[in-house]
Amino acid sequence: MKAALIAIAAFFALITQAFAQVPVQAIRSPGGIDAWLVSDSTVPMIVLHAYWQGGSATEPSSNVGITGVMTDMLTEGAGDLDANAFKERLQDLNMSLGFSSGWDGVGMSLVTLTENRDAAFEMARVALMQPRFDAAPLERIKRQITIGLRTRESNAGYIANLALDQALIPDHPYARRINAENVAALTRPALLARRAALFTRSGLMLTIVGDIDAETAGRLIDSTFGSLPLTRPASEPPLAEIRPATPLIVRALPQPQSLVLFAAPGIQDEDPDWTALVVANYIIGGGGFSSRLMDQVREQRGLVYGISTGPSVRDYSAFIRGSAQTENGDVRQAIEVIRAELARFHAEGATQAEVDDAITYLTGSFALDLDSNSKIAGVVHGYHTGGRDIDYINGRNDRIRAVTRDDVNRVARRLFDPNAFTFVVVGQPEGLEPAAAR
Length: 438
Fold this sequence. Notes:
Strand content: 15-25%
Strand order of the largest sheet: 1-2-8-3-7-6
Low-confidence stretches: 1-19, 434-438
Number of domains: 2
Mean pLDDT: 93
Number of strands: 13
Helix content: 40-55%
């Protein structure tokens, strides 16, 4: 085992040297739009990520879900191209173009070969500026949502996540979900209004990686995004007020296995303890088969198929979350062992060997996240939209190496109190007190 760890460490050392620095540069287009650029002509491909602040959490209560539908519709026809013609044009250009919606923002991703660069960016511009929102694809998407409304009541993940949000942040938009009335309100005028409210130059963050120089990037940025209005009305939800923990919530669902979710208040990623939390989480539940929870709950006792933990950060809330899947008859014991391991970590912290192993893995494996332009674009864009400094990516491993055992143990005391965790079980768990269910 020791020899295997040494071999892994040596492998990580080699690949880390190969990806020592990512040359991120800040550029500004002639029209005044800022972006982060990583210029690399090794592969004739360009990746663009765009992000606009303001997602589903900023929707009015009468239009819950409209942001996701609006972004889905942007590739269902634009300009003089209907839905089928638009998709055929994307195929002809051998490019991908997609839009996404989250709680806190909306995104656009474009991947194109260098030879089709200008035409690909023009497709993005047309989708942004001239979406058709035709009746036929809109009705199709509404039918799909309606089917989803019926099936989600038997989806353990949906039930568990909703139960957690409603228990911990019931008054925040994060706890809302689309319903039948919201679907009925999905009209073309409503979609046009939502698009106009979100897609502006204010709050726009751009990341470009690949075979493109700063001058060309600036030109394409202006041609694609320069026609967007400059500002939009501010619309921000409040910070989520987290309720005290509910020890156990049970939602009955007829199935042979139970899903267990657990969560406690966490920290935002600008908190001084964030990097120490990354290391601490790897030790307790984020390190796969190397983690304490995997060892104690699965390997030693065979109570779960898998278990993991991780920080869950949104703009207006932060949690430590974990999940496990187990047989209905093993749920009670699995929760007892999870709580016991959280209590031990909270009281005793980590060993020096655990900290060293976590740092070795986290620093070495990071290079695997940077072995293609697509991956580099994703990582750099994540740091960009997260408000990080432009050179944050190149100092990431040094910050992890600087984490000490005292740092990890301080975080364990701060964030891993077992009494701070709410547990949600969805299934038919055996041996849980009926009073614990609601």
